Amino acid sequence: MQATSALAILFPGNAMVNSLLATSYISIIPNLLLYFVPPNISPSTLNVLVNFAVGSLLGDVFLHLLPHAFNSHDHGHDEKHDAHHGHDAHHGHDAHHGDEYKSVLIGTGIFGGLFIFYAADKLMRAYCGKSGHDHHDHAHDHKKHDDVPDNKEKEVAASTYLNLLADFTHNLTDGIAMAASFYASPAIGATTAVAVFFHEIPHEVSDYAILIKSGFSKKSAMMAQFTTAIGAYIGTLIGIFIEEMAHQHEAHHHHGLFGTSMTWGDLVIPATAGGFIYIATVGVIPELLEAKTTSKLQPLKELVAMVIGMILMAGIAFTESHHH
After folding, report:
1. Which positions, given as ranges, span the membrane (predicted)?
2. Exposed/middle/buried for 205, CB within 10 Å: 0-12, 13-18, 19+?
3. 233 within 8 A of 29, measured Cβ to Cβ
4. What is the dihedral of CA 4, 18, 113, 265, to 10 degrees?
């Protein structure tokens, strides 16, 4: 129950206010933490952090986002409205074919989110020669950057700025996810905020290390990271706009997509889940698998960290459901 009251204190407003608050916490706090982080943080420590982050991110997907996406429409059209205010929903029954359509739509949304992230990653690699998620295992990047000859310096600078651009777009999608989650329900919003927060810390730390290695001063590296945070605010505003438009549409049109009670806005949560699955399983886990270590304990530490991340999300899920 303490977790719930803490989250209630952190997010006291309506969906719009809470999503902007969450974005502020996620953008500002990890960046402030950078001040206390040594730029030469060991890859093994970072990898433990990243495993914890992946666990919490996947925990959010499988314990919060997907159950919400599939359940929130099983109880009739009124629940959608009630969910926005965090109230218990009235149970109703949809036609059987409507349920099937909804499941297919939600599945399509999940695939859509995953595909968008894959497409962005693919295109970035094809046209820029850099992955949007190369930076988690920054130990490899450093080897490339050490003692670079002069003609390579431009290349390093380009990859650094590309990294910042990738960060900006990553934060943009986080912002959209944040808004969609808070509009879904206060509980979903809070858990997504927590998951993204834990994902952001190692993400910011590794990016910061790359910037320092590329010749940025501590101050300019922090400023660069703050600049990418603007993406999160833009994303949140886009998310709020999508949800508000969906509300307007819902108020005036009582029929949803393909004869279901779903609107386009309802596909944002499944798409978010798909995107998070891509980030965790394609963007991060392969790098964690490739990370070289001589320690026999390191892999166990990493696995335990991932499980702890998942358990944290489960704990929040149970606390929230008990609270409601």
Report:
1. 15-36, 48-66, 101-120, 221-242, 267-288, 300-318
2. buried
3. no
4. 110
Angle at which helix 15-33 crosses helix 186-213, to 10 degrees, equals 30
Q: Are 204 and 225 in contact (CB under 8 A)?
A: yes
Q: What's the half-sphere exposure (Cβ side, CA atoms, 13 Å) at 10?
A: 22
Sign of CA dihedral 218, 178, 310, 163: negative
| Number of Cβ atoms within 10 Å of the Cβ of 24 | 14
CA angle 275, 116, 199 (to 5 degrees): 30
Tell me the Ramachandran region of residue 57: left when phi exceeds 0, alpha when psi lies from -120 to 50, beta otherwise: alpha
Residue type at position 91:
H
Name the one residue in this structure whose structure tokens are 């399983």: 281
Please indicate whether residue 128 or residue 18 has the higher confidence score (pLDDT): 18
CB atoms within 10 A of CB 54: 28
Pair 183, 19: CB distance under 8 Å: yes
CA torsion angle for 235, 323, 71, 115 (degrees, to 10)? Answer: 30
323 pLDDT exceeds 70? no
By residue count, the chain amounts to: 324
